[in-house]
Amino acid sequence: MSGRLLANLRRPQVIGAEPAPNPRPAPRNQLVAGEAAAGRAGEIRVTNLVKDYRTAIGTRRVLDGISFDVGMGEKIAVLGRNGAGKSTLVKLIGGVEQPTAGTITRGLAMSWPIAFSGGFEITMSGLDNIRFIARLYGVPVDDAVASVDEFAELGRQLLMPVMLYSSGMRARLAFGLTLAVDFDCFLIDEVIAVGDQRFQRKCHDELFVKRAHCAMILVSHDSHTIRTYCNKALVLKAGRGRVFEDLDLALAIYNTL
What we know:
The chain is an alpha/beta fold and 257 residues long. Helices cover 32% and strands 26% of the residues. It has eight helices and ten strands. The strands form two sheets. Strands 6-7-8-4-9-10 form a six-stranded mixed β-sheet, with helices on both faces. The longest helix has 14 residues, at 167-180.
């Protein structure tokens, strides 16, 4: 994983930023970094999150005042059509990008997005990437290697440079690495399982059965998964969002977007 991404996933921390000039100034309570209350102990809290991008035709606001929280054991779904801001929200929560305004309070150990493989050092072997991540997160190296080796089922291919891996192999390695670290909250951007049906069942059991006590932020279009595992949902439209505890209502609204 990239140094910037990993550095932003430490706990606990409050991430915030002063906004860049934009055509629709955010309310005063969105502008001061760190102003949001800490909230419950042991939670991820997003408060009045704003993200602007400067484009050739002007400033585009992708997220506009998004707020929600998720505590240990809670699972929130993130719903929205393409372009609603789901991937941008994941990048902000995961520390890949900084918000224009608002705060992200991380009172739980947050994973990088599951199966995220863009941060591997591709000239290094899979084994060396595991060792690097294990040392960075304070996980015993031998334990991390054994865990990833058992889960990812890559065998001697762990000795190969990651640049030679297929996309599926990289996803297996990234998924296995995520599970090897003792995270409190898992960030899932649509990729819940990889590989064939047998391996997908393995991914499901490791994530939703063995780690049922963990918090999760789940971006998904799968209504069955959302109804089965989530206890609330954030519905995004045109950068704005609302949290619903009634999942049937949230899915009904999502289906009309």
